[in-house]
Amino acid sequence: MHNNFTTCNGPATLLYWTGASPDSPAFARLPFPSGASSEIRQSLPPISSTINQQAIAERLKLSRTTVSRSLANHPAISADTRAKVQNLAAKMGYRGNPTRTIRRSRQSKPLTIGILIGVPAENVAMATFPFILQGIRERAGMEHVAIDVCFENPASFDPAVRPQNIFRNIRANDWRGTILIYPFPEHTVAMIARKISAVAVLESYSTPGIDTIDTDDSVGILALVTRLAKAGHTRIGFLTWEYPVVGHWATRRFGGYVEALFSLGLQFRPEWTINVHKGGPHIDHLAKSGNITEHVVSLMRGAGVTAWVCAADHQAYLLTEELQARGIRVPEDCSVTGFDGLEPPQSLPRLASIRVPHEDIGSSAVARLLSRIVHPKAPRRKILVEGLSVEGLTIAPPPNP
User: What is the separation of C-alpha 24 from the centre of its chain, rounded to a whole number of angstroms?
Assistant: First the structure.
């Protein structure tokens, strides 16, 4: 569908297009009252074929190269200069080439992007980032892009305190953009995005201009809760872990859990959820006493909860292992679901889960970042990649009371 305003000397006409020729009956011509023509013309954004980078450069008394680099969000140009150029370009109606992409020959120097992974290098148990990196590497090779991988502990990573690390990498390795894997603090992300273009993977931020490549959490959780309900479960709990930097992914999956319960007519009880409410009790999964598993067992015995939806596979596998160590069988005594589709540790059953296509997400992140570098002021985008259901062996009918 397309709306086209014709504002000639006579009454204005709105052409409502359904995809056919203008001479076709598929066009509806709706006359506007006299005088509407000037109002419509005033409401339209300025469009001029004479607005180019040279015109912007002359207005700001900058070189055309500086303007070109500012429009491309190049980190070699200061953030203030880039902002002035981009804001004036928007006011003047400069659009550039909407189909422009980064094209580099194999003989030219590769464009470099940084990959910031929010986890210490030594803490990689049950991690998903290697699969995301695989997709990034494959797409980067196709696009003649070099990648520079950096591990950062998100709890202590603050460029305002020790800016030399991240910004030295940006300058020394000539980063043109960065892909953020795992949650980082909002203020840290805002500082990075002010310097270079950024795309977030499996996490979203309020900072303007940061695109997100994610999976559809709600659809995946709905599928898992529906399977539990069909197996006969009516008392279903939800748990997640405490993390140094709280991301939105667990909250989104909790939202999918609540939505699924209501859509299926099942009861929602806040006391059957663990580590969700910001002001509620927070339970450490690593504590020797009073840990998450003990709380789960207490709710199973005291409230009759027969199934648990975990926000991620690594949480669900540890819960399964610790339940079995207490003599509670999964799924005969308690059903457990995860999210990610990771391979099971030795001696544990494969989880009923949602396999996140991490390689596809990594590949999409590279493509999105290259577009963001060329069009830094484009509207923010969130791309959802559908997960795949994993049948698993951890769902069974609830035990007899």
Answer: 43
Question: Which neighbouring-strand residues pair with 145?
Answer: 111
pLDDT in tens, 346-396: 999 999 999 999 999 999 999 999 999 988 888 999 999 999 999 999 999
Task: Work out the pLDDT band at 99, boundaries 50, 70, 90.
Answer: very low
| Co-location of 314 and 255 in the same domain | yes
In a domain, 100, yes or no: no
Triad 362, 387, 254: Cα angle to 5°? 105
Range of the domain at 131: 111-214+359-384
User: Residue 146 above 90 pLDDT?
Assistant: yes
Calculate mean pLDDT across residues 141-147: 92
Residue 82 has pLDDT above 50, yes or no: yes
Q: How many other C-beta atoms are found inside a 10 Å radius of the C-beta of residue 162?
A: 11
Residues 390 and 347 sit within 8 Å (Cβ to Cβ): no
Kindly give the pairing relationship between strand 13-17 and strand 2-6. antiparallel
Of residues 151 and 104, more confidence is placed in 151
Q: Tell me, what CATH number does 150's domain have?
A: 3.40.50.2300
| Structural domain total, the chain | 4
The tokens for 31 are 């006359």
Q: Are the beta carbons of 115 and 343 closer than 8 angstroms?
A: no
In a domain, 261, yes or no: yes
In this structure, are residues 225 and 261 in contact, taking their beta carbons and an 8 Å threshold? yes
The tens digit of pLDDT for each residue in 121-131 reads 555 667 889 99
Q: What is the spatial distance between Cα 397 and Cα 333, in angstroms, rounded to a whole number?
A: 9
Residues 6+ apart with CB under 8 A from 218: 252, 255, 256, 259
Q: Does 234 share its domain with 207?
A: no
From residue 363, how far is each of 112, 297, 394 by CA, in Å? 15, 41, 31
What are 31's strand-pairing partners?
13
Please say whether the dihedral angle defined by the alpha carbons of residues 139, 141, 147 and 151, taken in this order, is positive or negative: positive
Write down the mean pLDDT value for the chain: 81
